[in-house]
Amino acid sequence: MATFATVDLVKYLCTCEKKFPICRLYLCKHCLKLRCIDCVQHEVDTPYCPNCLEIMPAQEAKLKKNRCSNCFDCPVCGHTLMTRASGHISPNPEDPNKSVTKKTYYLACGFCRWNTRDINMLDQTVATGNWPMLENPHVKRINNLLENYKLMAQVEKADRERKKYVKRRSHLYLQDKFNLSPSVMKRKGLSSFSSLSLKEGDKTIEDLEPSVPVESFDPLPNDYYTQPAALEKTTKLVHRLSVPEFQPEDVSKLHPINKHLIMKKSLRCRECEHNLSKSDFNPCSIKFKIQLTALHWVPEVRIMTPSTFTYNKETLVTLTMSNPSVFNTTVTLSQIENETDVDYCTAKVELPKKELVLASRDEPSMHVYEDSSQAHEFKDDPKLIVFRKGNKIGFVVKVTPVVPQGDVKICFLLKHEFRNTTVAALQSESKEPEIKWLEHKVYLCLGTI
Amino acid sequence: MPHFEGLLGDEPRIIILDIGSAYTKCGLAGDTGPRCIIPSETKNPRNQQTSKIWDYSSTDELYEHLKELLYTLISRYLLVTPKDRRVVVIESLLCPTDFRDTLARVLFKHFEVASILFAPSHLLSLMTLGTKTGLVLDVGYQESFVVPVYEGIPILKGWRTIPLASKAIHSRIKSQLLEHGTVSTPEQKHQPVASMPDILTDELLEDIKVCCCFVTEYSRGQQIQEVTMRGGHANKLPPPPPDTDYQIDGGSVLNISGRIREHTCEVLFEQDNDETSIATLLMDAIVACPIDTRKDLASNILVTGGTSMMPGFYHRLQLELSHLLKKPCYAQQLGIKRFLFHKAPAKENYTAWLGGALLGALETLPSKSLSRDVYLQKGKLPDWCCIDSDFLLEDKNSKS
Ligand SMILES: [Zn+2]
Ligand SMILES: [Zn+2]
Ligand SMILES: [Zn+2]
Ligand SMILES: [Zn+2]
């Protein structure tokens, strides 16, 4: 049935001129314009661990490189590791005749059976918080380098302030030497880098130990020539790349991986910077504090049943339209002037000329309505409005394909009343919300000839 | 939460991005390694089709794919708000203009970043050593690329590239398997791989390379090339290492012969008709440089790129170079006696990224970057990728 399964058949034109199914659009209530995923700003809201659902404050998440300290992933299959306890019986230090049971913990994967004892990691005496972390062996060197570059950058900055317009002489000399014309240097963006290399004259850099080069390397161990590749002892590339700073080649060097945090994100209108979607702070909650999806504000058009089409012959197609608003909503449909693009329009369409009135959405009584009484209440023309049920109507359009084959596509302009029911808007003098008219271009793909 | 960060008085950290032809490295300035190394590709959530970033037919397509890739990086790995953040983009000196333009468009227009600095990968790699002079060899996916850098400036005459890298190894494995590889399925043993070529996906070839293959030792390599390149008799081949049974999906076993394990990486060192290999690439680069720079370059070689992490690579390269040095054509010209290699404080596949992370942590970054304001004002990237101070002065004038 039409667009429930294939939402792509009916698309609305976003303000940015891209077409999306209505369930993927937002309506900014401040600009009163549709927004899509490409014309909103994405923001980090709250990082949290997908396993223990603990929220981590942004600062802490930064320090911990977005990883949870208590949850671990299996380095082999990525499954969450479980903490397992095991008891050891050891003699009681106070009374040698008695023994005590000591509990120790290790991590194990319930899926592929990998565990921390496989890699000879010592069991821990406490269940959480004490697992050893790997440390990049180059940390010290990198920090030394960074400190030196920072000093040089300070010097460079001061230098630049001092002689803004004087060209560096050494620079010109090198350009001469390597036949580098200034334009080549500029184009390749090289000139601004030369200043970053260490200069002998500079006083600030002497504490950095120079990198020591080597002349020869060890040959491969003989096993490479005499043994088959030890596949069960070798990690796959994905395992290596999941820990970029370590990239272990040997399975015994794999280490539990601290679970990566995920985040709740919020969306903001690019134009007015108001929030379009903001989820509840609590990671367990699936609710939203703000959720301006267009589905809640814009009447949704669907295709009722598939029809068969013939070239140049009129076919009646039933579409449905439902009203998301708690007010009765008036809608008019009209042709889009000068839509000539055959990519989106391959048939002539005759639309209902009269205004269509959609009943309000009223959750509790949604299923009690009776077709006839409602039709009577709204004085529906049965030729036009095929049925009416709650906030939904079925209406007929006449479609005449103008291409001999291919998809039958139509488009029209949908104008509807919109009542801004945000608190702020309601607080203004009149109790009744102000009525605005919004219009959207709707594109439908009805089927093939 | 940008406001939150502001309150606590520390600047949002700079995004360091390196979109390589096979893998993308991404992280934050000041870190000791990237947060992630993921394939440079995007997956369509509906049909699960992957599209490689660099295989683009139009810049519009590239734009969409870059948007997807960056969205993944930012929202899954970095967890930061991209708006008003600075970005360092690490790029190859060979990066095509349309790629750079499109990337700038995505970053500035879609993600609204504050500024971009495009930084050449070879210079950044050298930054991780703290030296200003060196011969930087990048053995990546598409090609191997050597750039001599002297006193912080790349010597244009010395740039050399050759299409010998990971991709060449993969296609060598593939052709060898198709030629004489066998696969045993539960139904039938020892079928030729050629009868089911579809099993040889890019991922499989890469994994075979990583898990089974190695760069053999120099003298064995010479013997192999004598047979495979110069038509020597097959009995001259060194005894091959044992075959390896490689499990593939569905209970099938692919037989990886010892010859495949040992011979495929030879593609990097074979001197074909033009007598070019990775080793000659380095030699020729040095020869092209001014004579008084050669000794410094030869004694400061830095190798980067994931392919150089193959077992045995350094040992072989070093021996190849010292043998080339004995050849008359180089011996007379070069006037150097030995080669010295540096090891960066990083794995080869993210050395350039680490240089970017160092550069991005410096206070001079803003003055070298292209700001969004200037970009939007000009409507496009300037012809050059980093900005000189005069360009920025213009910016300041327009603001005041
Ligand atoms: Zn949009
Ligand atoms: Zn956790
Ligand atoms: Zn596992
Ligand atoms: Zn807005």
From TrEMBL, chain A:
<dbReference type="Pfam" id="PF05502">
    <property type="entry name" value="Dynactin_p62"/>
</dbReference>
<dbReference type="InterPro" id="IPR008603">
    <property type="entry name" value="DCTN4"/>
</dbReference>
<keyword id="KW-0175">Coiled coil</keyword>
<dbReference type="GO" id="GO:0030016">
    <property type="term" value="C:myofibril"/>
</dbReference>
<dbReference type="GO" id="GO:0005938">
    <property type="term" value="C:cell cortex"/>
</dbReference>
<keyword id="KW-0597">Phosphoprotein</keyword>
<comment type="similarity">
    <text>Belongs to the dynactin subunit 4 family.</text>
</comment>
<comment type="subunit">
    <text>Subunit of dynactin, a multiprotein complex part of a tripartite complex with dynein and a adapter, such as BICDL1, BICD2 or HOOK3. The dynactin complex is built around ACTR1A/ACTB filament and consists of an actin-related filament composed of a shoulder domain, a pointed end and a barbed end. Its length is defined by its flexible shoulder domain. The soulder is composed of 2 DCTN1 subunits, 4 DCTN2 and 2 DCTN3. The 4 DCNT2 (via N-terminus) bind the ACTR1A filament and act as molecular rulers to determine the length. The pointed end is important for binding dynein-dynactin cargo adapters.</text>
</comment>
<protein>
    <recommendedName>
        <fullName>Dynactin subunit 4</fullName>
    </recommendedName>
</protein>
<dbReference type="GO" id="GO:0005813">
    <property type="term" value="C:centrosome"/>
</dbReference>
<keyword id="KW-0963">Cytoplasm</keyword>
<keyword id="KW-0832">Ubl conjugation</keyword>
<dbReference type="GO" id="GO:0001725">
    <property type="term" value="C:stress fiber"/>
</dbReference>
<dbReference type="GO" id="GO:0005869">
    <property type="term" value="C:dynactin complex"/>
</dbReference>
<keyword id="KW-0206">Cytoskeleton</keyword>
<keyword id="KW-0007">Acetylation</keyword>
<keyword id="KW-1017">Isopeptide bond</keyword>
From TrEMBL, chain B:
<dbReference type="InterPro" id="IPR004000">
    <property type="entry name" value="Actin"/>
</dbReference>
<comment type="function">
    <text>Actins are highly conserved proteins that are involved in various types of cell motility and are ubiquitously expressed in all eukaryotic cells.</text>
</comment>
<dbReference type="InterPro" id="IPR043129">
    <property type="entry name" value="ATPase_NBD"/>
</dbReference>
<protein>
    <submittedName>
        <fullName>Actin-related protein 10-like</fullName>
    </submittedName>
</protein>
<dbReference type="Pfam" id="PF00022">
    <property type="entry name" value="Actin"/>
</dbReference>
<comment type="similarity">
    <text>Belongs to the actin family.</text>
</comment>
